[in-house]
Design a protein that fits this description.
The complex is a heterodimer of chains A (about 350) and B (about 350). Chain A contains no helices and 31 strands. Chain A is an all-beta fold and about 350 residues long. Chain A has a single domain, classed as YVTN repeat-like/Quinoprotein amine dehydrogenase (Methylamine Dehydrogenase, Chain H). In chain A, strand 4 and strand 5 form a beta hairpin. Chain A starts with 9 loop residues before the first strand and ends in a 7-residue tail after the last strand. Chain B has about 350 residues and is of the alpha/beta class. In chain B, the strands form three sheets. Chain B has a seven-stranded parallel beta sheet with strand order 3-2-6-1-7-8-9, with helices on both faces. Classes of the chains: A mainly beta (about 350), B alpha/beta (about 350). Chains A and B meet through strand 16 of A and helix 2 and helix 4 of B.
């Protein structure tokens, strides 16, 4: 790869937090950096200055800001919490339940995995409704159909719920332990990453009626050496990136989908620790590995089956444990030691 | 570990390579009242100063404040990989995963399971999940037994198809703490030891009162390390007077000679594939034809872990030693099957 195609990346700011970060999320000029021990630092994306700190006793597993930046939701081993920016107050729910996923559905409600259920909370933390118990602890949650339908993953499949319905309206079954959930922004695909080292994919064609069996069939991508714990669609919904191997795979979901195709493979890491698509859908992916490499990719280049090399890499002393894009031109990474680094990319990337 | 083995697995590393810095995990199991909580508190007290994380499956009374205690509800997940007895503990995977993301390094992790828990999914979790296997090391399964009550538990007749958990827990154990010996007479104690031996010829039996056992006998014992396989000779029960009809037994094979690798692969592969559900644990040191090093292996059900071990000594007889612990094992059939893997010519003792 010639130098002409490498990306020009500058440091915007650097700071540090006193913990090992497990999640980074950005919205509305804020970036939340959540530490495993239970403190979440909320930083200004322009300066890196601390705006607030929020604590969830017992540890944090997941953190997400509402799209307007007015609220933050945290999940942890012993419960969950919501924070309000306007009042700088935190409502902590010590449920004793494992909360490994929190996901805002617009600015007014957030889904929180809580033991074997998912709860839907108002922005102030008040519970609106809850699903009935899944066969195991809920591992991930996601919204679809303009945030009207909630999908959860747990043992043996994905379940979809609608407002105030404790029972699922649709179930996408597949034997095994599902760890992560990704729903295409097009609404056409539901994908789960699995303990048994596969990605399972369901088509969500329009249903003949409410409820009933999903039509369109499903498929499984086998052959990964490791479990799939991270998978993400880009903003177009045409590309799915995942871990599960030293090489990140990128599947093409345009047209009829990935069935019978081969993925692009991105080689830079020993074990993938984080990945995130740049917002805007230009095919730029950021990834990090346990070996300490941070990589940026033009992940949709070449043809199906191509092995791609990174457009930019940076070697770090410590592996990045979480990263997030704060808009298309700012990438925020947090490493094992708590160093938080914001990299500025040119707004218009050279092709 | 590999699943559904048909070829002898061979790790890239050989015995005695780099120091194993993975965090040791001790599994503490046994019926309610056998003294688990007492032993756990003893470990936490005597190892004061070490950072210990405890994962509990039942509400215990851990009396040490500086230990991190996490509750877990047993979640047994089947693996969707065609390996019928490959189950893992989803609760342990997520809890251990979260522990590893914390900045503080734990010196030790203790998993306390209920007397009703199946040991196999716990053990298999450490071999089926690469993220866990890369950072944590299953040190040993320590089973506590109440000397006064264990015979009643062992004799309990279960409905068809239901396991006797007491038998299983003894069969899987690397160390058996025979607790409350002060509550039984010598005759009873001898009978209890004989009963345990008939099931498990490999485990060290450690008599104790008030769970006062020398901690070095149960901690950091490396029971799953291949270079410790059959370090101490198994103690098969030779006297028959105390033997009961037990369906779970230990079968040992000790034969001189060299093995035809193809025939061994076929025999062992078929055995584990067809009888893997009934074979709880297996260990062996084998002499492959023409090999300068011993082949060492150990397994849990169908999962087999093996590698080339130490060099055979000059003039050392090529001796094959194997132990199977399992249900309905046919000693004669196992002996005959293994003997048929020996090469026709007598083993050559090479320099």
């Amino acid at each position: 790869m010639s130098t002409a195609t490498t990306l020009d990346v500058d440091t915007a700011w650097e700071t540090a937090v006193e913990d090992a970060p497990v999640a980074v999320h950005s919205a509305a000029g804020l970036v939340a950096v959540a530490g495993a021990d239970g403190t979440c630092w909320i930083l200004d994306t322009t300066t890196g200055d601390i705006v607030a700190t929020v604590t969830l006793p017992g540890g944090i597993l997941a953190a997400q800001l509402s799209p307007d930046g007015a609220h933050l939701a945290l999940g942890g081993p012993f419960g969950h919490a919501t924070w309000s920016r306007a009042t700088n107050t935190t409502l902590i729910s010590k449920t004793g339940n494992w909360s490994a996923a929190v996901r805002w559905g617009g600015n007014d409600k957030v889904a929180v995995a809580s033991g074997r259920r998912a709860l839907v909370l108002a922005a102030d933390g008040e519970q609106l409704w809850a699903t009935d118990p899944a066969p195991s602890t809920v591992t991930d949650v996601a919204w679809l159909r303009e945030n009207r339908r909630l999908a959860t993953t747990a043992y043996n499949g994905v379940r979809c719920y609608e407002r105030h319905s404790a029972r699922p309206v649709t179930e996408y079954g597949y034997l095994g332990s599902h760890l992560a959930l990704a729903i295409a922004p097009t609404g056409r695909w539901i994908c789960s990453g699995n303990q048994d080292a596969s990605i399972h994919i369901w088509r969500t064609l329009p249903q003949p009626s409410a409820g009933g069996t999903p039509i369109g069939g499903d498929l499984t991508m086998h052959g990964y050496p490791d479990k799939i714990a991270r998978l993400a669609f880009d903003d177009t919904g045409y590309w799915l990136a995942s871990d599960g191997a030293p090489d990140i795979t990128v599947w093409d979901f345009s047209g009829k989908g990935p069935e019978g195709t081969r993925p692009r493979t991105l080689r830079a890491h020993e074990t993938v620790t984080a990945l995130a698509w740049r917002p805007g859908g230009a095919g730029i992916l950021a990834s990090a590995g346990a070996e300490g490499t941070l990589a940026l990719w033009r992940a949709t280049r070449g043809r199906a089956g191509a092995r791609l090399r990174p457009a930019h890499t940076r070697e770090l002393d410590q592996p990045v444990t979480a990263l997030a894009w704060a808009g298309p031109d700012l990438l925020v990474t947090a490493d094992w030691e708590g160093r938080v680094h914001a990299s500025r990319l040119p707004a218009a990337l050279p092709r | 570990m590999t699943t559904d083995t048909t070829d002898l697995p061979e790790n890239e590393t050989e015995v005695g390579d780099a120091l194993d810095t993975r965090v040791p995990v001790t599994v503490l199991t046994g019926f309610l009242g056998s003294g688990k909580t007492t032993l756990l508190n003893r470990i936490l007290t005597e190892q004061h100063g070490l950072r210990i994380a405890v994962i509990e499956n039942e509400f215990g009374e851990v009396g040490i404040d500086d230990a991190l205690v996490l509750d877990a509800e047993e979640e047994i997940f089947e693996m969707n990989n065609g390996c019928i007895c490959c189950t893992v503990r989803g609760d342990l995977i997520r809890i251990l995963g979260a522990l590893m993301r914390r900045r503080e390094r734990f010196d030790r992790i203790v998993i306390e399971t209920t007397g009703l828990a199946e040991p196999a999914p716990v053990a298999q979790t450490f071999f089926m999940d690469d993220e866990i296997a890369s950072q944590l090391r299953l040190d040993a399964i320590v089973t506590l037994v109440d000397a006064a009550h264990i015979r009643a538990h062992l004799d309990e007749v279960k409905p068809e198809g239901v396991e006797n958990e007491a038998v299983e827990q003894i069969a899987f154990a690397d160390r058996i703490v025979l607790n409350k010996t002060d509550l039984v007479d010598h005759q009873t104690l001898a009978e209890v030891v004989a009963r345990i031996r008939a099931v498990n010829a490999l485990a060290d039996i450690l008599p104790a009162q008030q769970a006062a056992v020398d901690l070095p006998r149960i901690l950091d014992v490396h029971a799953f390390d291949l270079d410790r396989v059959l370090e101490t000779d198994p103690q098969f029960l030779t006297e028959t007077e105390h033997q009961h009809d037990t369906t779970v037994t230990s079968v040992g094979i000790d034969l001189e000679g060299e093995l035809d690798e193809d025939r061994l692969n076929t025999w062992l592969g078929t055995l584990l594939r067809e009888r893997g559900t009934d074979i709880f644990r297996s260990k062996g040191i084998l002499a492959l034809e023409g090999a300068e090093r011993q082949y060492v292996f150990q397994g849990v059900h169908m999962l087999l872990d093996g590698e080339m071990g130490r060099q055979w000594g000059i003039g050392e007889p090529r001796r094959n030693r194997l132990v199977f612990i399992g249900r309905n094992l046919d000693r004669d059939e196992l002996n005959a099957g293994f003997a048929a893997c020996l090469t026709a010519t007598p083993a050559a003792v090479t320099a």
